[in-house]
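Q: Can I see a sequence and its folded structure?
A: Here is a first one.
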Amino acid sequence: MGIEELNQKIQNCQKCKLSKLLYNIYDPKIGYGKLLGNGGKEIFIVAQNPSIYRVPFQMSAMGVDYELKWKGDYFRKMLRDIEIDTSKIYWTNVVKCSTENNIAPSDEITDICGKWLLLEIDTIKPKKIIAMGRIAKEYLLKQKLNISLGHIWHYAYINKNPHLKDVYIKMILKEFDV
């Protein structure tokens, strides 16, 4: 099965209660994987789940003085600013739908949705996976994958703790072997 067919199956998934939430019904394509560039898919970045906040917002706490459309836009801009080649990155989530009130997904939901992530990994066969945040890290460690696994903080943590931005950039550079 190719990635397009897999993404179609993910989009049509009804295996848990999250698929019935209005923001997942009206915007089902938000949670499945996205290639950040036109190159290969050597590195997976795996986050927790899509945010329910899909409206423009200001990242002024991080020193960005313009509005970005999605929270992930800031992270992608940061990667480009520190000269990380985003063409080799595939961005995805453990849980493919947004959670109610943007809370952390339960272990039950993570286990149900995580099966889709494992199929993405099996289909694309990345050289390295970088878990973004605690939920993604814990899920991936339980899987005992035979792939290099790294970890960085979720960028939302940096948004709340802008004084840690330099530490975060060093973390990213280490995981990307720069």
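Q: Show me another, different protein.
A: A second, unrelated one:
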Amino acid sequence: MIRPGFPVRNTSAETLQFLMDGAVESTITEASVGTAAWQAAIDIEPIMKNVAGGKKEFYRMDSSLAPVEISAWHTNISGLPWNERNRDKAKRLLQEAGYKKEPIRFMTTQEYKWMYDFALLTKQQLEDAGFNIDLQVVDWATLVKRRNNSKEYDVFTTGMGAFYDPTHHIYLTPSWPGWTTDEGILKIQQELARETDPKKRMALWEQQTRQFYEKVPVIRYGDLFGLRATRNTVKGFNEKTERVRFYNVWLEK
């Protein structure tokens, strides 16, 4: 319950939800087949809605790798294999890869409830598609430590803040857990770093987005929003920032 005098604000794209794969291809032998099958299997909106407490204003369905709020890099590309809800395709990909129900170690934490809810609901959907999910619930510090060693897990759940340039998306690099080493992805990242023409950079970013859904280095779900409340006497507060900022903020007496 929000008392009078406490305006409520949604934050802007506070968390871009992803599932990162560390070694799922070592469990499912053919490269990228594991994540492609995962991507095909999931029905995203029921997961997002549940995590957001059933409130439509706290989640957004969007395939773009940049949120609407970063308009310069937001994409609207039709036909991407996002939210396919295609269990038959997932089962076919698993069969073609020779998957034999080996357990996939899925790491999450209850310290961030939304991470745990994402993992639990995803596990149920994946098992219906033929995956064998070993859900490992650990504290956040342990997850952060383990995710740097691909031998200790296959997949983990996390969220990303907003990135203000295509070259800032750390999950498209080999230096962040998940370790994206696909030559095509890295090549476009290099081209984006060199190119200065805005239109050409946007064309490259759209190409990268299509490539992301083809190669599936990680699983993209959607956008989550937070909730903030302040007294009417708080002035100068900028509710559009991803995280709370209190510079140039004051109390009006």
